[in-house]
Amino acid sequence: MTGDRGSMTIWMLGLSVLVLVFGGLAIDFWRALALQRELSAVADSAAIAAASGIDEVRYRESGEVMLDPGRARALGVASIAEQELDPLSYEVATDGAGLSVSVVVVDTVELGLLGLLVDQTEPLIVRAEATASPRLLP
Asked: Is 138 domain-assigned?
């Protein structure tokens, strides 16, 4: 019986360290998911704003709803600039036919405990993409 003295303390200490490690990893994972969700919201709002950049002259002349690439890009970039997030990079582009616009937003995640376990020469990159097209409502 005297040889078992203190073994419960060692088990509890080991378990506590394990819980702290998994907790730190979970916080880093949660931070990456939260950033991805925020980037998705920014990309969605920028795509919707850019899709409102229709070519008004063409619409008045022919009734066709087509995007003006310059105007759509300017509206998408302005929407991203108005957000509280300052992404690492972003791209707003229309397709060749002027029927849709796509927005890609990229940012990096600052790692905490996970940074001690993985090589941090390349950062953890999070990317979100959204596509929208203009529509006429009846």
From this structure: no
Q: Map residue 102 onto helix, strand or coil.
A: strand
Q: Provide the domain count of the chain.
A: 1
What pTM was estimated for this model as a whole? 0.78
pLDDT, tens digit (0-9, with 9 covering 90-100), for 15-66: 998 898 888 888 888 988 999 999 999 999 999 999 999 989 988 999 888 8
Burial of 107 (0-12, 13-18, 19+ CB in 10 A): buried
Residue 42 domain boundaries: 2-132
For residue 110, how far is the Cα from the chain centroid? 14
Query: Does 137 fall in a domain?
Result: no
Give the separation between CA 87 and CA 40, rounded to whole angstroms: 12
